[in-house]
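User: Hey, quick favor. My workstation is busy. Could you predict this chain's structure for me?
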Amino acid sequence: MSETIFTKIINREIPADIIYEDDLALAFKDINPQAPVHFLVIPKKVIPTINAIEPEDREIVGHLYTVAAKIAQEMEFAEDGYRAVMNCNEHGGQTVYHIHLHVLAGKPMGWPPYTEKLKV
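Assistant: No problem, here it is.
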């Protein structure tokens, strides 16, 4: 498998606005944010797609969500809520083939009639 932009970020070959790092994961701000808060949480282990997750990857994948929740608490948007989503393959919107959890916050998100009701 060829090296991705995320591998280069992990290896510090290209810069990123890193907001969290530990032995298993790295989180950094998305370069094309879709919400006032938009960052990615990635595993340091290369797993190309959700379809490639193996049973032994359970801890790593679960850890991505605990990192997202920790950052949400630290950045003080956990109570308001946020979206955490992982895309899979081309039709799912995946553009980098190294799994990554998108975390979006800072505005109401959801189905348009729901968000319209919030404006009333």
